[in-house]
Each structure stands twice: as C-alpha cells, then as structure tokens.
Specification:
It is a multi-pass membrane protein. The protein has two domains: 26-73 and 82-239, Immunoglobulin-like (Sandwich), CATH 2.60.40.420; 246-329, Cupredoxins -  blue copper proteins (Immunoglobulin-like). The protein is 38% helix and 18% strand. It has nine helices and twelve strands.
C-alpha cells in the first residue's frame, strides 16, 4: 500500500515534464506554425473548434461551481428543495438555441473551407502539376508538364499552387507536409488529388502519416520551396546531363552493371528504385542519413540495416567497387 502511495507523489512531476516536452520538436513539422494558405485555413478551423469547446467547458464548470456554492446545505438549514425549473419554456429555448448557434458558427466555415480545400487544380494551367507515388519506404515525384522526375526531394516554387495527384505502388501510405497542409492518403490503384502552396523560400519536412511497414517512421522527405527564378533554374539543371569526371568513370560502369536496372539517372527516368538524377545535390541519403561517403557506403552495403523492410537488394560489391560508385554518385550534381 505504501508503495502505491509513494508512486502518487510522482504524478505532478510527470505532468510537469509532459507540459515542458510539448514545447520540444521541429517547427518545420508543426501544423501550429503554418507556412502556406492551406495550412493557415486549417489552423483557423482548429482554433475555432478548440475555442468553442473551451467556451462550453468553461460555462459548464462555472454553472457547476455556482450550483455547488449557491445551493450547498449550511449548518442549521432545513431540508428545503430549491425552486425547480423543469418545464420552463424560457430555459428550454435558451439551452436549445445556444448549441444550435455554436454548431452553426462551427459548421458554416468548416463546410466552406472543406469545399475550398478539396478543389481539384490538376487542370489549372497556372499550377505546378506533381504526380506523387509512394513506395516502401521512399517517395517518387514526377513533373509531367516539365518533363522531369526525382525522388525524396520535392522542389516547388513559392506563391504557386502545387496540384498533386497521389497514388501508391504497394501499400497504403499518407503524404503529409505539416507546415503546408494536412495529409492525403495514397492508395494502390487509386489517384487522390489535393493542393498545397508555400509562402516563402524555405525547406519543410514531410512524412508518411499512415503505418505502412517496418520502416514507416523512416519514410521522410523534404519540400524545398524556391523563388520562381530559382525553381526554373533548378528545372533546367535537372534536364542537363551531369558531366562525369574521369576518376568517376569506373564507378559509372559499376553502376550501369549493377544498379541501372532499378535506378534512373536522367531527367525523365522512372524505375523500380528512386531516380538518382541530381543525387549529389541532396542533403540526405535514403531520406534519413546525412549526405557523406560513409552514409552512402552504409546504405549500399546493407540497406536493410538502415531501413528494415525496404525493397533494395544487397548488391554484392567489393569495397573498391563501392568506393568507385560513391565517386560516381557524388558527380551527379
């Protein structure tokens, strides 16, 4: 019994720690710090619904405390029943009309924003069209109007609607960039549409928001928003074949013999694995490791140790072959 009594003493400490930990985290994956119009509209709805709920809770507790204090039995009081309000038409109207008003305040903007955010912009000529395909455990991005494809890094221009078409190559996933808007599921054999927009030049983190396998927690990607001029320059660079230096030619040959069947290295190429065009310019390897030679070596040697359950096979390469492949990959800028 004493043991349980001692445990109760730690509850306030745990509560304080939980309160402090709510302030920890990465602001680029917080829906509470919107960086685009879609995210701001959704945050407004969250604040509106939370405000109504808090108001209702406060009113109920105020009435509750008032009744406890006002009608408590004092010493010497007789057993007197307070005046009953059952059947009062006035009160019946008040506590019927007020909830209806609150529901309308919540429902009207919710329906309005839901319809607005569900608009399909895939036929909008001013929007940037992106086809997203989710894989275990990486993301493929195609720009059909621009003739390029890439993986893991989604590059977009600021202040332009990005019209997405989303699907999945294997299991159910969910595309989510918290700073720019809510999630949208990717289903096998189906195409879902939605749009996002970024206000400013920055880098945002994206995640898979649906449990999809052993490495679900590692299925991250980046959204890089650029000015329109920088975005156009990036598109042109992606279409320009990389100049392979002489010391990377051996690695290019090893890559062609062992990796090219899965990985494309050109602007439009799609394969079983991620398109590696522009690989050297990415900040992460496999979406989670820092971009350096050791990370690339670790990934090539044993992909399952980095992302359990992923579909990349363990290619039997010697150490010198891996070093050559690393040189080649680092030339794909």
């Amino acid at each position: 019994m004493n043991r349980w009594q001692n445990l109760w003493r730690y509850i306030p400490l745990f509560g304080l720690m939980m309160l402090l930990l709510t302030g920890c985290g990465d602001e680029t994956i917080s829906a509470l710090k919107p960086r685009g119009p879609v995210a701001r509209d959704q945050l407004f709805l969250m604040k509106l619904s939370l405000g109504i709920m808090v108001l209702v809770v406060i009113v109920v507790f105020v009435i509750y405390v008032y009744v406890l204090v006002r009608f408590r039995k004092k010493k010497g009081d007789k057993d007197i029943i307070p005046k009953q309000v059952e059947g009062s038409h006035t009160l019946e109207i008040i506590w019927t009309v007020i909830p209806i008003i609150l529901l309308l305040i919540l429902a009207v903007p919710t329906v309005s924003y839901t319809v607005k955010l569900a608009e399909n912009h895939t036929q909008d000529k001013d929007a940037i069209h992106v086809k997203v395909t989710a894989h275990q455990f990486w993301w493929q991005f195609e720009y059909p109007d621009l003739g390029i494809a890439t993986a893991q890094d989604l590059v977009i221009p600021t202040n332009k609607k990005i019209a997405f078409e989303l699907t999945s190559a294997d299991v159910l996933h969910s595309f989510w960039v918290p700073s720019l808007g809510g999630k949208q599921d990717t289903n096998v054999g189906m195409t879902n549409t939605f749009y996002l927009e970024a206000d400013e030049v920055d880098t945002f983190k994206g995640k898979c928001a649906e449990l999809c396998g052993a490495s679900h927690a590692l299925m991250d990607f980046k959204v890089v928003s650029k000015s329109e001029a920088d975005f156009n320059a990036w598109v042109n660079k992606m279409k320009t074949p990389a100049a392979i230096p002489a010391d990377a030619k051996n690695g290019e040959q090893v890559f062609k013999e062992n990796c090219l069947s899965c990985h494309a290295v050109n602007a439009q190429g799609l394969g079983f694995g991620p398109n590696l065009n522009g690989f050297a310019s990415r900040e992460l390897v496999a979406g989670i490791l820092p971009h350096n030679d050791d990370s690339i070596r670790q990934w090539v040697k044993d992909p399952q140790a980095v992302k359990p359950g992923n579909k990349m096979p363990q290619v039997p390469l010697k150490d010198d072959q891996i070093n050559d492949v690393i040189k080649y990959l680092n030339s794909l800028k």
